[in-house]
Design goal:
7 helices; elongated; mainly alpha; 143 residues
Length: 143
């Protein structure tokens, strides 16, 4: 299934690749094969990144890390990917904020929040609160 997914990715057939990965994940879940689940989720994270779905990429990378830990295997590559994705999500959120698309900015900031370093986490939390206040003020609601 993984080889099939890779072939689909090479052909630009991302939906088909995702289907192959989901099938692989279902099989590994049924037999509680944590390493297999971890590998599949890591691949799914990279596919989500490839198609531009940062929230999905972050979720899959975080789940992959959990499965590597359950399998008592190193997960430094997951940590590295999560840090990179958090930075990317933060930058994308800033871009949305500049465009005035505050709900999308908040979505990206919240996705990055659990994986950001402490300084960035504080800044993101502050920015999310500020954007929510702006949205509420525009809607005539109390913040």
């Amino acid at each position: 299934l993984h080889n099939g997914a890779i072939a689909h990715i090479k052909n630009g057939e991302y939906v088909e690749a995702a289907v192959q990965y989901r099938k692989a994940l279902m099989i590994t879940e049924k037999i509680s094969y944590y390493e297999g689940m971890a590998i599949t989720l890591f691949s799914m994270a990279n596919l989500a990144l490839l198609i531009g779905d940062l929230s999905e990429a972050l979720a899959n990378a975080a789940d992959s890390r959990k499965m590597f830990a359950k399998a008592n295997l190193p997960h430094g590559h997951c940590d590295d990917l999560l840090k990179q994705l958090a930075v990317t999500a933060k930058k994308k959120g800033i871009s949305y904020e500049k465009e005035g698309n505050f709900p999308e900015a908040i979505k990206h900031f919240e996705a990055a929040l659990p994986f950001a370093d402490e300084k960035s986490r504080q800044a993101l939390t502050h920015e999310i609160k500020l954007l929510r206040r702006i949205i509420n003020d525009r809607q005539g609601k109390d913040s």
